[in-house]
Write a structure and sequence with these properties.
Chain A: Its EC number is 1.11.1.24. The complex is a heterodimer of chains A (216) and B (292). Chain A has 216 residues and is of the alpha/beta class. Chain A contains nine helices and nine strands. In chain B, 40% of the residues are buried. Classes of the chains: A alpha/beta (216), B alpha/beta (292).
Chain lengths: 216, 292
């Protein structure tokens, strides 16, 4: 079963709940029409260099990772999101092949502290999980939006304390975009969709890496 | 949202003048106006009233400004830290510590910042919370670790970092020293030395177990107080994070548990250098009940 098949099954199961369906539809409709997508970094664009803290209390530098090879920058919403959990499992499974291509993977979430640690520990992930504090790098990549009211209310109703998780009450989230960067830090391939139940297929990521490794 | 849209909006909110904001951002005024309009579309309403001679923030504009400003600063600081790693400029980090908090919990973050910025100058100031707040307002300190219970002016951001638990500190020759834990019963009749740098745990204990132990006021440096504990003047209730000399024993207090929440405090919206923003981000990323 592919990642997208699993995501589709999860969506079908969850959207039986009418409040959730309304919140989901409001989010993707709002993002679809409000001009978010044209601002997302496109192929060939240089990805802005950054340093962010990882969950172990170290600073991680994009340029230090790029010095070793291509880098996959994966934005995700947080361990609270079932679609992110499926995606993290898929990335964990794909990691040996990613590393075999000489690439590294960093996963950026606006979550801080224990919830961000859970995202690594619960999936036995060995890639870097970074706290994108106040969504700064997400903004630079053009992937941040403000959660619309229905979805915000839905999260409050189910007890997902976003202000505590993020350390701010801004209600900003990234769309779960994927950027494959070449060694010069340029976007070689990207996946971005306003529908957060759609994610980059690991095989597409691997194909982009193979393309980078191929002689010109 | 795009970085430039947010940057233009924050600049415009400062000058409330399209011409000056466009100059400050080095763009044409139509480009700035278009970017603001697109941001307004995304955020679902006007951020500014545009009247003939005046420009004012709308309620939505006022609500969104601190959030957008914080996000812009986070974007700029992530890039500035990367740039500082290449250029290695001289930088400073001035951290206030409320009495009895110590810097053991944040030492990892200072070390990480110093690894990126080898010429980092570090200053740690221990003082009463009110004095640290004054120092931050006067730009003498970049940020501070303060207990949860102190009042803060509106201009401050604060993030809970960890829960500080008290231990009982006693000489190795004390009758209780071979215990593994301490309860309120064990402290009956004991003398507790307490002072302004002890974190208030003895007073917290006395508030619920009044008369159980005798409190003796003893102000001054923690090192001197520990010398008195060693000499047998009494016990001390201190943060479990304070590093003790080998001749003293620290035992967890299990009944009652004495805790206080420690938070990181900084002035909202004040531009921070790469060292400070890196430090604050590291601390926020590692927050949790058990701390870094």
């Amino acid at each position: 079963m592919s990642l997208q098949d699993k995501l589709d099954a999860e969506r079908t199961l969850r959207l039986v709940n009418e409040a959730l369906r309304a919140a989901y539809e409001e989010t993707i409709t709002t993002l679809g029409r409000n001009g978010l997508m044209p601002g997302v970094l496109v192929e060939e664009a240089p990805f802005p260099d950054f340093i962010l803290p990882n969950i172990e209390g170290k600073l991680v530098s994009l340029s230090a990772l790029l010095a070793r090879g291509p880098v996959i920058v994966q934005f995700f919403r947080g361990e609270w999101c079932p679609y992110c959990r499926l995606m993290l499992d898929a990335l964990v499974a794909a990691l040996p092949e990613i590393e075999a291509q000489g690439a590294s993977l960093v996963a950026l979430t606006p979550d801080t502290g224990p919830p961000a640690r859970d995202a690594k520990v619960n999936h036995s992930a060995t890639f870097e999980v970074l706290s994108d504090i106040d969504c700064g790098v997400g903004l630079a990549a053009g992937v941040v939006f403000r959660l619309p009211p229905l979805y915000r209310a839905r999260m409050q109703a189910v007890g997902t304390d976003v202000p505590s998780r993020h350390g701010n009450d801004s209600w900003f989230l990234p769309i779960p975009a994927t950027f494959v960067l070449d060694r010069d830090g340029r976007v070689a391939w990207r996946f971005a969709d306003v529908d957060f139940t759609r994610r980059a297929a690991p095989e597409r990521i691997l194909a982009a890496l193979r393309q980078l490794a191929a002689p010109d | 949202m795009e970085l430039t849209q947010v940057r233009y909006f924050v600049a415009l909110s400062r000058s409330l003048n399209f011409t000056r904001a466009a100059e400050a951002c080095n763009v044409t005024q139509p480009a700035l106006t278009r970017a603001i309009q697109r941001l307004e579309e995304e955020l679902g309403g006007p951020l500014l009233y545009r009247e003939r001679s005046t420009t004012q923030l709308t309620e939505l504009g006022r609500t969104m400004l601190p959030h957008l400003d914080a996000m812009l600063m986070a974007a700029d600081s992530a890039a500035a830290l990367a740039d500082a790693r290449r250029r290695q400029p001289v930088a400073s980090l001035k951290i206030g510590l409320a009495p009895g908090i110590g810097c053991a919990a944040i030492a990892f973050a200072v070390r990480e910042v110093a690894a990126i910025l080898p010429d980092l100058m570090i200053r740690l100031d221990e003082a009463a919370a009110a004095m640290l707040i004054e120092s931050m307002l006067a730009d003498m300190l970049d940020c501070a670790l303060l207990p949860q219970d102190c009042d803060l002016p509106d201009r401050f951001n604060h993030w809970p970092l960890y829960d500080d638990r008290a231990v009982a500190v006693l000489p190795a020759c004390h009758a209780l020293a071979d215990r593994t834990t301490i309860t309120a019963d064990d402290l009956r009749g004991e003398t507790l030395l307490h002072g302004e740098r002890c974190g208030g745990f003895a007073c917290l204990f006395d508030a619920t177990w009044q008369g159980q132990a005798r409190l003796r006021r003893c102000d001054g440096a923690i090192g001197h107080l520990l010398d008195l504990v060693d000499a047998g003047l009494g016990l001390a209730l201190l943060s479990e994070r304070i590093v003790l000399p080998a001749r003293l024993v620290a035992l967890p207090i299990i009944e009652p548990t004495l805790t206080r929440r420690v938070r990181l405090v900084a002035i909202a919206g004040r531009p921070q250098g790469a060292a400070v923003s890196g430090f604050v981000k590291l601390c926020r990323a590692r927050r949790g009940p058990d701390g870094p």
